[in-house]
Amino acid sequence: MAKKVEFSVEDKLRALYDLQLIDSRIDKIRSVRGELPLEVEDLEDEVAGLEVRISKIHDELDECTEEIKSKQNTTEHAKSMIKKYNDQQKNVRNNRAFESLSKEIEFQELEIELCTKQIKELTAQIELKKENIDQNNEKLKERKEHLTHKKNELDDILKETEKEENGLLKKSKKFESKIDESLLISYKKIRSSVRNGLAVVAVERGASAGSFFTIPPQVQLDIASRKKLITDEHSGRILVDKLLAEEESKKMEKLFTSI
Asked: Where does 135-183 show beta strands of DSSP type E?
């Protein structure tokens, strides 16, 4: 049975600081991309939305065109019925039949008048929809060009950084495996709660890096002794002494160069 390896507090501090250096370098790489991935995603959604909108307007155009054809057919049918009733009026023998046919003719004339009005309205709608399609197509063209530009910009950055980022992510996982689970959970919790992602920082000029709060001399001595894990009471960050930080930074620079 393999003997369980026991790590000293100093070993844990070094492993934590090494992991912090790796994760900070990953953060830096990702910051170069900035908002580009989100910009690309937003532009893709906008392009898709415009395409759906244009397709919908085309469907509405087809419906209007079909409706006009239907109204035209109704108009032609009404005209043929008027002709039929006019011919029948020439052969009627009483006023009652003549009046009945006159009402039918009047109804068909009203039908033609209504259809003419509706065709005019539908034609106006078609013109507006065509203008709408042209405007949306112009906007779609501009958005697609902008999307292509942003995608190319993002691809260029990814090509430059992808290899290093993937290598660093593997190293991050490897270094995580060297740290106790409870300590790793604390590290990640601190990292997610601070703006710059620094969960482990060195003591510089009597204060934790990035802080203006002075650390008492006795606490500084405890940190330098590397006998126990000490956190900054103001930020919650894990503290290491400056010498350890410098030693690990030099070591990790060599590792970064080899990736």
From this structure: none
How many angstroms separate the CA atoms of 63 and 176, rounded? Answer: 62
Q: Are residues 44 and 156 in the same domain?
A: yes
Q: Give the integer Cα–Cα distance in Å for 133 and 186.
A: 55
Q: Is 208 exposed, middle or buried (0-12, 13-18, 19+ CB in 10 A)?
A: buried
Q: Report if residue 174 sits inside a domain.
A: no
Dist CA 218 CA 57 (whole Å) = 75
pLDDT tens figures, 217-243 = 999 999 999 999 999 888 889 999 999
- Quick one: 192 and 143 in the same domain? no
CA distance 16 to 176: 8
- Measuring CA to CA, which residue among 51, 2, 7, 3 is closest to residue 229? 7
Single pTM value for the model: 0.61
Number of residues written out for the chain: 259
Domain boundaries, position 23? 9-32+180-258
H/E stretch holding 116? helix 95-176
